[in-house]
User: What shape does this take?
Amino acid sequence: MSPVSFLILLPFLGALAILLTPAKHSFAWRGTALLFSGLAALTGLSIFFDFVPGSAGFQMVGRVDWNSAIGLTYHVGVDGLNVGLLLVTGLVGFAAVGVSSEIEKQPKMFYVLLLLIIGGALGSFASLDLFFLYFFNEIALVPTFLMIGIWGRGEQKNYAAFQITLYLSLGALVALAGLICLYAMSGANTLDVVVLSAWLKEHPLPAASQTLIFGLLLFGFGTMVGLFPFHSWAPLGYGVAPTATAMLHAGILKKVGLYALLRAAYPLLPVGVAQWTGVLAVLCLGNLLYCGWVAMRQKDLNLLFGNSSLAHMGFVFLGLASVSVIGITGAVVIMVAHALLAALEFALSGYLYRQAGTLELSKLGGAMRQLPFVGAALVAALLAGCGVPGFANFAGEVTVLFGAWKALPWHVVAAAWGGLIIGGVYMLRAIRQVAHGEVSPVLAQSTDAGGVNRAPYLVLLVPLIYFGVAPTGLVDRIKPSAERIVARATSGLPATPAPTAAEPAVATASAH
Amino acid sequence: MNSSLLVIEFLVALLGLGVLLADLWIAPSARRTLAYVATTGLLLVFTIHAGALAPADGTAFGGMFLVDGLANFFKSIFLVAAMVVLMVSTRFADRLNGYGEFVALILFATVGMLLTASANDFILMFVSLELITVTFYILVSFQRNRLSSVEAGVKYLIFGALAAAFMVFGITLIFGSANSTNFFEIAAKQGELAKSPVFLIGLLLTFVGLGFKISAFPFQMWTPDVYQGAPAPVTAFLATGSKAAGFVLILRLAYGVVPELSAKWSHLLLGFAVITALYGSFCGLAQRSVKRLMGYSSISNAGFLLLGIAAANDTGSSAVAFFLAAYVFTTLLVFAGVTVVTADGETDDFSAFGGLGQRSPFLAAGLTIGLVSLAGVPPLAGFFAKFWLFKAAALRVADDRWFLVAILAACVAVVISFYYYFGIIRAMYWPRHTAESTPVEPSIPVRLAMVTCIAAVILMGVFPGGLVSVARQAVAGLGPATAPAAHAAPPVAAH
Assistant: This one.
């Protein structure tokens, strides 16, 4: 069995094991969840380090003819695009189980649902067949709904649970319509990206079909990521979700949509790329500027994190819109970095909420004095969020800006740069309000995380810094795949006089 | 005459008569045994049907009765549905006055369904449909002491009689213009008949009658009332068996008898499909009664199924067959849960399901799986059913952009339906203020039925390939669809 299949299997096995453990052994539920998510994190690490950088092909491939009659195969493997994402999914999954010791109500169901989400996320990142990518991603839908409903907090959880479910399923269904059109129109009778990409090279789809399918995929998957103007589900959903769900959703599941765009839409539909990147370049500014602006006005730490995570998605979209090797490499770096960052942010805010009973910025203060470890981790996370060098986010954001500079009109890049400044404003303000100053009354009785309880936060913080200091480990793995994607994505533009077909072609497309 | 082809139907009818007779001698307290006997009998019939003793393909009664892949596929569905309904109805036995008759009537309705699957003549089609409908008039109003049940029965009677009148009028027009009522003979001269307005009107009126059966817009009015008023096991049979009986006829007519016409009417069908799906979804939003909600869900699903008919290609017909198989198991699962929950209380309001997650984790999990499958979420049967159906429609998008509009509208209908399916899930799991804390324990037969359905729903969702192949073989006998755009994907050897 390919290590990737093993990795996907682990959380599902864990869920099954917990399901079969009777109530009299209830202490074993959390232990089992920790064991299996820990194993998944270790497997993710070993896959990441076993991966041979510098090649664009798929490694550690596992393939089962799931059903040849309908042309759908179980096909998993890693390349530069998903190797980092699988790593952070394992880490975030482990951290999410780690911070869930607070769950007292129905812990069995909680851990089963949590492991299902982790397994679904791992499966969708590893799948090279788009049917399975979608299939695994949707497995997380019902657990999310139930987790917000049963363990969520606040008055608005009912509304938020339905909003997030309906938004995500609408996005998913539009994307599904796109995938089915691709499946039906290509004539290849498969959704396996490897086979499909070879087939479409020989038999490209008509331009109109490509434009149509790309549009469906862009808005469908875009909604799942929170692309402006289909983003409003995210901050509230994260605000009321239990800590572990928010970590997995903001950190991991949100990246599935981006990953699917890079995996499916970009290499398979070059004409669609040319047609739509101009729109994408404008919409990503909505994320960067509008969501950043909204984040500035938030009075609740979780809502601030929710909106800022949307703003960060704007950078990824900017990288996608640039259709350049540098831009897309940077986008993937941000996806990896932001997975760690968002999970860390929500893990810390969950800790604060448990200690203080509120996340209102005006009521918090002095976290550094009272909770040295959590406060320091929070400051680190907030600094990473405003793109300070030394964290992986900086590496990604600066790379994206370099890529965008060459490919996109200067005012788009200037606006994106403005987004960075907005990010600085609200993140630094949050540091001042939460971490510094006198210890606020709500935090006066709080205790810092100590001993093993620090592990979940360190699991996220250490790689964030490691990839910030030494991003080459990541970039070397991503770049060959980004080159392959860009080569395919720009191959559908025959009528460009420019000698280097890649960037200038898109620049003209987006200038319309 | 080749009456041995009817062995399945004969056996089920005999079983029904046997139950009716046995009911005279059996003590009222032991009537539940009748359901177990009937289920076992159906299981035996099913093994004959599925095994080597099954009648070979062929026709009987002067070409009126046909055994082919499609008929056999649907007969399996009907037999399974009848078995599950009988097992679930045991939970209701105390509330049904004359439970022995109830069991017999379910069996007679099953005979009617088995005959519709094999109908190859407009006359047999009408007779078998009436056998189903008349039985259901009694079944729907079986709880004679409950006003809503009687009211539902009257409504069903009036609408059913109207539909039958439309259909029989349509059949006379068809007979008048075609000089035959045999499906094969009409299929042979469909090109010429398509020019006859009388024939077209007759066909449309027949579709009106079938539209009532499957509760397609604008013939859906009876559905919510009847679903709500009828006893829960009857509603389950109405939603599965009766609907599938309508669809097997629509499949046979649209793909086998007049494929050229149905391809020409593709936009008409598409329009009704979309309106039906959206109507069911939108009206379901405000419902608080779960059975009524399932009525609207049933309307919505009829819309999705019509999408597969409108697609008029090979994938479309196999998708309809697959969807129905998935839908039958899913719906039976939901109704099994609803039956247990409503068996003791008077209401089927959302509040009756409150806290079910703690009162009976098994029932709640079963209901959740059923509802999530109806919503169409992987890894359950309902997801792949919609996937395959949408693929059938997507094959037409390249030459007809209305199909894209229809797919997107269907997506909207699906998202809306999420709201109400998940509303029931919320009622079951979320912490509540008013605590209904009596534990509910499903009996062993109900448990067995639910486990069967859960297994089927998961297996069909995770390994749909087997059923797709079966569905493809089942519809292969209908002849290739002759729609100009019905090109299937060129086969590609798996690399």
Q: What stands out?
A: Residues 251 and 339 of chain A are 4 Å apart (CA to CA).
